[in-house]
Predict the structure.
Amino acid sequence: MGAQGLQFDTNRIELSAGAPSTIHFENNDPGIQHNIAIFTDSSLGTNLFRGEIVTGPAAVDYRIPPLEPGTYYFHCDVHPTMSGSVVVKAAGGGGPPPTATPATGGGGGGGGGTANPSTVTAQGLAFSTTEIALPPDAPSTIHFENKDAGVSHDIAIYTDSSLGTNLFRGQIITGPASIDYSIPPLKPGTYYFHCDVHPTMDGSVTVG
Ligand SMILES: [Cu+2]
């Protein structure tokens, strides 16, 4: 994986449980320091791994110790809003995991650490989730809570991380405040969201 433009190129890292693994990390930001640190959760409860900070352009192979199955949190210690989830899957028996199966099942991102995917909180310049699941072809609602006093945030949805086409732009609210965003019907697919004020606060929208 890599970092460029103060963003990671993924907000999801998948590892196998119970065995050491390696993350090849490329920092493509010249003169800027990044790393990957893994924590039990987004409150940074317990640090499970802390990668050496590297100044771009540079690459490093991080050797990750064996982790229990579960969903964890990673960020860049230098830029904590660069963040995402680490999914550690049981090695299990049999064949390879069904990585080719898209998450088309109803309800979307189950099993993760997010209680209700249609509620998103912004706190400490970070969203509470990097994955929002919405129903296909129907209007939906995202309840958005901005808990950052005096700080403005919104949620905007785009076709992809290049911001190709804007699909929804929520009203910017200054915390503490909350709002119900009415999302128009979207086709099944995977989209991108971020805060227009803080574009490194971002994640994916799964419609399906
Ligand atoms: Cu923001």
